[in-house]
Design brief:
Shape: extended
Order of helices and strands: HHHHHHHHHHHHHHHHH
Largest sheet: none
Distance between the termini: 91 Å
Number of strands: 0
Radius of gyration: 34 Å
């Protein structure tokens, strides 16, 4: 009896299995029903994103309630004609101050020589002499390089322009600049402005070691002569930077560099509002350049400084903006100012309670 039941069950199972096999195609592939199938299809049909490699990194700008945009807008509406010999107000009453320039650290290291190597090109020998403060010898080497019209001729001209500016030989420097093509002419003007800006007052040495009242009369005259010389150099440097900004607009990289250099110079002589105006130009029109982190950092420093522009709340906003831009722009995440920004923003929070 049990044998009959077993055979019956076997026959039923065989018939069902045959019908199932008959319904499947011989080469059918297994299919898997995915959860969230609509998402899968969406991923399959999604268009390939555009290539953003050539786009400049995005940079956030300050909130619209900041007055810096208004300052920049008013600057654009003004005429760009600037009197090249106009002296800024604070220069007329400038008192000796510690140089507070924000120089960008450089990671480039030029080749060093233990002694002058006559086998080296004149330009490199001139650089060696310049590093050792042998300016007259450097001038001779640069002249030699220019006369030979070799590989370093143009570089030698730029360094010679800067040296002549530091010696207050502006006309000699301009004679070299006028012989250059248009683009290099403006680069030469930038070297001239940088050289004029780097002229430092001899009275700094007196201020560090002696009281002015104790100096002999002839020494006092020397101090005040140096002070007037520095004022004149700064005035000429400002005028030269403005020439680049107003005349070399087609050379965008150079103009942004001139805005930064001029803002830094104005910051050194405590012309804070004028410095902010040039920093605003960088924030609005040159935010894809290497000077965007400089502009935000120096703006914050100015708002921390004593004077009419002092605003600690706004300074903190600029520091926060600097940190926020690390997410969008490697210029900020790799900036030499980053450690200082973190330090200063923490100091503001601790001392003033700004959040």
């Amino acid at each position: 009896m049990w044998l009959l039941k077993t055979l019956s069950l076997f026959l039923v199972f065989s018939i069902c299995y045959s019908s199932i096999v008959a319904q499947e195609p011989e080469n059918a592939e297994a299919t898997i029903t995915l959860p969230f199938e609509n998402i899968y299809k969406l991923e399959q049909n999604r268009e390939k994103p555009e290539d953003d490699t050539n786009k400049p990194p995005e940079t956030l700008l300050p909130n619209s309630d900041s007055s810096i945009e208004n300052k920049a807008t008013s600057l654009i509406e003004k005429k760009e004609e600037v009197e090249k010999k106009q002296l800024l107000p604070n220069l007329q009453e400038e008192s000796p101050k510690k140089d507070k320039a924000l120089e960008r650290p450089t990671q480039k290291k030029s080749k060093k020589f233990k002694q002058t190597d006559e086998s080296q090109p004149p330009f490199e020998r001139g650089i060696y002499q310049l590093k050792n403060n042998l300016e007259n010898e450097a001038q001779k080497e640069f002249n030699d390089s220019i006369l030979k019209q070799g590989e370093y001729s143009l570089k030698a001209k730029f360094d010679q322009i800067r040296l002549l500016a530091r010696e207050r030989k502006r006309d000699d420097a301009l004679s070299i600049i006028n012989g250059l093509d248009p683009e290099n002419k403006y680069k030469g003007l930038f070297e001239l402005a940088s050289g004029l800006d780097s002229v430092t007052p001899q009275q700094e040495e007196f201020n560090q070691n002696l009281t002015f009242d104790k100096l002999e009369e002839n020494e006092k005259k020397k101090v005040w002569w140096d002070k007037d010389l520095v004022k004149e150099s700064k005035k000429d440097a400002i005028a030269t930077y403005l020439t680049i900004i107003t005349e070399a607009k087609e050379y965008r990289a150079l103009v942004s560099k001139a805005h930064w250099a001029l803002a830094n110079l104005l910051y050194k002589i405590s012309e804070y509002q004028a410095a902010l105006d040039h920093l605003a130009k960088i924030l609005l029109y040159y935010k894809d350049t290497e000077f965007i982190d400089d502009a935000i950092y120096l703006s914050a420093r100015i708002y921390e400084s004593e004077g009419d522009t002092r605003d600690l709340g706004r300074a903190q906003k600029y520091y926060n903006l600097f940190l926020k831009n690390r997410e969008f722009n490697p210029v900020f995440s790799e900036s030499v100012y980053l450690p200082k920004v973190k330090e200063r923003i923490q100091k503001l929070v601790n001392n003033n309670g700004y959040q």
